[in-house]
Amino acid sequence: NEPNIEPKELAKITAPTLVICGRRDMIRESHTREIAEHIPNAELAIIEGDHFIANKRHSAFNQEVERFLRALQ
Fold this sequence. Notes:
Elements: H1 7-10, E1 18-22, H2 29-38, E2 43-47, H3 53-56, H4 58-72
Parallel strand pairs: 1-2
């Protein structure tokens, strides 16, 4: 249930945003998709793994972040 951020608040984000999660994350995929949908121009990346993908699947995680950052250039 936390953080409980209203979609109208997410819509105020103007920075380039990458929403990233694991396929078997503790946060429901539908909730993660809803977050990404409400942030203007956000990108969503779902990586095979659980909530700790940055640690357990660091290569895949870093690859997605690097791809996202390169696209900003």
